[in-house]
């Protein structure tokens, strides 16, 4: 599931076991990203804190839209599936997520939604190539500088996290195979989804 060895639950501080147990409680399995980043528990905690701080200033819908746009540009299957699934379940539906992933417009997105995704895409495509006019569309739609910064932060954070996952060969969790097939296939933009663990392998112990 990754080119890096899985974190060792017997690590003396208990931080790895705690991270695995937290996933088991919230997800019912240990995510591949946790198996990777628990090798460095302080980094895992710092990422959770940073991501939480970014999300705290945004609506969940806007955060997921910006994150999905960045993940698609970065060809991060793991992040595209994870955040596409949240958008589908809680905000716009599976058909709209599929349409976005395939590069089509959808009536489920407002002009602000589209502008948010466009800006996040530009950040992920190459922030050094951006100019101030790239912020104009969101300003014209009424977003203030703090709200625009939130979009940039979400996209930039995804550049970090998606790069870590792909640079270590960490595949999206096998549970994503259960998503709506058309949406799942459209969101599989890079590495394939992991094959399921043998029976019982997903357990933290």
Topology (elements, then pairings):
Blueprint: H1 15-26, H2 32-37, H3 41-56, H4 60-73, H5 77-90, H6 94-101, H7 111-126, H8 136-140, H9 145-167, H10 181-187
Helix pairs in contact: 3-9, 4-5, 4-7, 4-9, 5-6, 6-10, 7-9
Write a structural description.
- There is one protein chain.
- The protein is an all-alpha fold.
- It is 59% helix and 0% strand.
- It has helices at 15-26, 32-37, 41-56, 60-73, 77-90, 94-101, 111-126, 136-140, 145-167, 181-187.
- Helix 4 runs antiparallel to helix 5 (77-90) and helix 5 (77-90) runs antiparallel to helix 6 (94-101).
- The two termini are 17 Å apart.
- The model is unreliable at 198-205 (pLDDT under 50).
Keyword list:
205 residues; mainly alpha; globular; disordered C terminus; CMD-like; Peroxidase-related enzyme; peroxidase activity
Instruction: Note the beta-strand portion.
Output: under 5%
Protein structure class? mainly alpha
Number of strands: 0
Percent helix: 55-70%
In terms of quaternary structure, the protein is: single chain
**Contiguous uncertain segments of 5+ residues:** 198-205
The largest β sheet comes out as:
none
Radius of gyration: 17 Å
How many angstroms does the end-to-end distance come to?
17 Å
Give the ordered list of helices and strands.
HHHHHHHHHH
